[in-house]
Design brief:
- The structure holds two protein chains of two kinds.
- By secondary structure, chain A is α/β, with parallel strands linked by helices.
- Chain A is 34% helix and 12% strand.
- Chain B has three domains: 242 residues, Rossmann fold; 127 residues, Rossmann fold, CATH 3.40.50; 33 residues, no CATH class.
- Helix content of chain B is 42%, strand content 17%.
- Chain B is built from 15 helices and 16 strands.
- In chain B, the strands form three sheets. A seven-stranded mixed β-sheet of chain B has the order 3-2-4-5-7-6-13, with helices on both faces. A six-stranded mixed β-sheet of chain B has the order 10-12-11-14-15-16, with helices on both faces. Chain B has a two-stranded antiparallel sheet with strand order 1-8.
- About 2% of the residues of chain B have low confidence.
- Chains A and B meet through strand 1, strand 2, helix 3 and helix 5 of A and strand 3, helix 3, helix 5 and strand 9 of B.
- Thiamine diphosphate (TPP) binds next to helix 2, strand 3 and helix 4 of chain A.
Chain lengths: 339, 423
């Protein structure tokens, strides 16, 4: 009896390049690429944020024919990209402050709208993105972000979530997961690392603003990431993209594990990948082969205190419960593996 | 056109005549009427194309202004008091980036205790932030200064704060001469940015700068403000030529030529002082007043020249550096170095305390007789101050200060400005 070959990935954007027709493959390096975040910047080896930003901004450049302006919050991305007189940015780029990237984006969009009207165009052809780290987005820039959403300003905001304040030496943010060690949540005391029951889910808060488009993505699925950016740029109004970007330095992970960690975060269910339009979740990326959370946690020194002698299996169980809750809540299991 | 209107409305109309492209605002008294007026004009389509953004905080207001100015739009906002403090990080950022934003500050006290009435603490707290600061004596001057401010800001590529006394000017109905659109268009050319976010010519703005160039960037801001010291009187002269009115400039003297005593002040209190000085002149006292119309850049040479031949200087200021004394006085003293004159500081009008002619006459007569204390608080109620000091000496848990003083007065807040408090 012949068995049909399963192409688990067809029909999704998680497909590897070799299974795709030429025209749809993502191009890692080419002269034709915009390289909006050019080589030579000072990010650590294996930096997920650098990788994510490179794909996001290039995809947005493609989608807008290069008519793009970026506002950037203070943080690793800003610091490693502009050690003047060098700058990695090949597009007009403005860094103002840590907590105001969304509002600066709103201001740029307002100016472009007026300029377009003065030129007799109905709508600006130049588009705006604003970007920042999780700290700049979920904490200090949260008011400006919510204001930009609520006014439905024509800005795509991208949060590069590495689950902590990396640029200032790895402190806890409201995106830091429970049990993680950071410089301000040390693995000490009866509940080592970051506490349970704290933090906030900004993608869902963005959905609650009922803005035109919200999506999450990881640097493990670059094709999916690019597609989401392109989709976002086809829309107008406030849009939000939350990208999971492992940080080898802050997480105590091997530089070569960045993609693997991003994939595991999704496949454990710890980081649900979904899209929402106008307040409704419209798609989720299914987990093909569910992975227990310890496979993900084990690779990172920030969770080292959970393992080995004197470890905390009960904490790992709590993290597993969080993953299971996500899987249920977002319906992350593919039918065949749900059985 | 001559019309009778509220100060805020006059400013709103003047700003509208400057053809702003992006306006962002957050409500705070006594600034609200200005942006309400502009909001109505934008909503009615009278300023099209112009974007009006109702933002979620003053920090966002200044941040939106930074983005729109960097993208090449003529940008305006207004605030006061707590609002100015709430946006401080972005205020410094706007000047550091060299963005020609124009902002009205409707001067109001800073809490605690929360107080909505007029003094100059808010603007003075930002005197070193790199913005040009102009002070209006009257509603006419306030509206004229806004027209000059856009020209100055855009020429220098530097933000300008137009400071006008909250309530005293913003809420006063006075007669003003409102220019027409053609006059303003002839005076104020379209905005041609020095730096702009443009995909055709991509630049990075706002890079990190280390010790190798930071001092130089800062110095250049100072050099530009020094250049503004020349441009400000020139622009005032051009304005006078075009509109036939005296407004702006660095300083303005009133009866100071032969004055043995010169009172230095900023803003609307100058009008009251002029009347006081007329009274004293009628009594034979040689006294005059010097109005500082531009506080940043500080017109050191102009102040020095005005004070060079007098015997006595009284700085009357609506601001106060706790633990030191006067703020304006400190700068005026610097202008008086090696000029042998006696100097007095009178702190007056904090939190809206009325500055009456009677009180002014009393302190100025003491000054002329050299019987005034170096640092004087006009009409300070020593009774309640001393009562509270005694209370603190007697009891550890002496309680909240402001509430104690109000209880001592027995009647709630002193009535100062008419109207309901709208913090
Ligand atoms: C108002 C203000 N507070 C604090 C800082 C210090 N600061 C600069 S970057 C940063 C951390 C950034 O963290 P995140 O936004 O997550 O970006 P990451 O570096 O992790 O990519 C902090 C705390 C600042 N620049 N401004
Ligand atoms: S600390 Fe982390 S986020 Fe920052 S550059 Fe290094 S790897 Fe990237
Ligand atoms: Mg971070």
């Amino acid at each position: 009896m012949t068995q049909p070959i399963k192409f688990y990935q067809t029909g999704t954007f998680t497909v590897g390049n070799r299974l795709l027709p030429e025209g749809q493959r993502s191009v890692q390096s080419s002269e034709a690429r915009d390289n909006s975040l050019n080589s030579g910047h000072r990010a650590c080896q294996g930096c997920g944020e650098a990788l994510g930003a490179r794909y996001v901004v290039d995809a947005a450049m493609r989608a807008t024919d290069g008519q793009l302006i970026a506002a950037n919050a203070t943080g690793c991305l800003e610091v490693f990209s502009t050690p003047y007189p060098e700058t990695s940015w090949q597009l007009p780029w403005l860094h103002s402050l840590f907590g105001n990237a969304a509002a600066v984006g709103s201001g740029i969009a307002a100016a472009l709208k007026v300029k377009a009207l003065k030129a007799g165009q109905g709508q600006a052809t130049t588009r705006v993105i604003a970007q920042g780290g999780d700290g700049g987005t979920t904490d200090i820039g949260f008011g400006c972000l919510s204001g930009m959403f609520e006014r439905n300003d024509d800005v795509l905001y991208i949060c590069y979530d590495n689950e902590g304040y990396m640029n200032t030496g790895v402190q806890r943010s409201s995106a830091t997961p429970p049990a993680a060690r950071t410089a301000t949540t040390q693995p000490l005391g009866p509940e080592p690392g970051a506490e349970f029951g704290k933090g906030k889910n900004v993608p869902l808060i963005a959905v609650a603003h009922e803005i035109p488009y919200v999506a999450t993505a990881t640097v493990a699925d670059l094709h999916d990431l690019e597609a989401k950016v392109e989709k976002a740029m086809r829309l107008h109004g406030a849009r939000y993209l939350h990208v999971f970007v492992p940080c080898p330095l802050g997480w105590g992970a091997a530089s070569c594990d960045t993609i693997r960690l991003a994939r595991l975060a999704r496949e454990t269910g710890l980081f649900p990948v979904f899209e929402a339009e106008n307040g409704e979740i419209t798609s989720v990326t299914k987990i093909r082969r569910p992975v227990p959370v310890d496979e993900y946690l084990r690779l990172q020194k920030r969770f080292a205190h959970l393992f080995g002698a004197g470890g905390h299996p009960e904490t790992i169980a709590r993290i597993q419960a969080m993953a299971d809750k996500n899987i249920k809540r977002f319906g992350l299991l593919a039918e065949e593996s749900a059985a | 056109m001559i019309k009778q209107t509220e100060g805020s409305q006059a400013v709103a109309e003047a700003v509208a005549l400057c053809r702003p492209e992006v306006i962002c605002a957050y409500p705070i008294s006594p600034q609200t009427h200005i942006v309400e007026g502009l909001g109505a004009l934008v909503k009615a389509g009278d300023l099209a194309p112009c974007e009006f953004l109702n933002v979620e905080s003053e920090f966002a207001a200044m941040s939106v202004a930074i983005g729109s100015s960097a993208a090449g739009a003529r940008t305006y906002t207004a605030t006061a008091s707590q609002g100015l403090l709430f946006m401080v990080e972005a205020v410094y950022n706007a000047s550091g980036l060299g963005l020609p934003i124009v902002m009205t500050v409707a001067n109001r006290a800073i809490g605690a205790p929360i107080n909505i009435w007029n003094d100059h603490s808010d603007s003075m707290s930002q005197r070193d932030c790199g913005w040009i600061q102009l002070f209006a004596e009257s509603n006419q001057e306030a509206l004229d200064l806004h027209i000059q401010a856009f020209k100055l800001a855009e020429e220098m590529s530097m933000p300008v704060m137009v400071c006008m006394d909250g309530f005293i000017l913003t809420h006063a109905y006075e007669q003003v001469d409102m220019p027409d659109q053609a006059q303003v268009d002839a005076f104020l050319p379209p905005y041609e940015p020095r730096q702009v976010l443009d995909p055709a010519e991509p630049v990075s703005i706002g890079a990190m700068v280390g010790p190798e160039a930071f001092m130089e960037v800062r110095y250049l801001a100072h050099a530009k403000q020094t250049m503004a010291l020349d441009r400000i009187p020139e622009i005032a002269a051009e304005f006078k030529e075009a509109f036939g009115r005296d407004a702006g400039g660095l300083v303005r003297g009133y009866r100071i030529e032969d004055a043995e005593t010169i009172v230095v002040a900023l803003g609307s209190v100058v009008g009251t002082l002029e009347e006081t000085i007329d009274t004293m002149r009628a009594e034979g006292v040689k006294i005059g007043v010097l109005s500082i119309r531009c506080f940043r850049p500080f017109p050191m040479a102009a102040v020095r020249a005005a004070l060079a031949r007098t015997a006595r200087v009284v700085v009357l200021e609506k601001s106060f550096a706790v633990g030191l004394g006067g703020i304006v006085s400190t700068d005026v003293r610097l202008a008086m170095v090696r000029i042998h004159v006696r100097g007095y500081t009178v702190v007056a009008g904090l939190g809206g305390r009325p500055i009456t002619q009677d009180s002014l006459l009393r302190v100025l007569r003491l000054a002329v007789a050299d019987e005034l204390k170096n640092l004087t608080f006009l009409d300070l109620d020593w009774d309640i101050v001393n009562r509270h000091l005694a209370r603190e000496a007697a009891t550890r848990r002496s309680g909240p200060i402001a509430e104690n003083l109000l209880r001592d007065i027995g009647s709630g807040a002193r009535p100062t400005t008419a109207g309901k408090a709208q913090p």
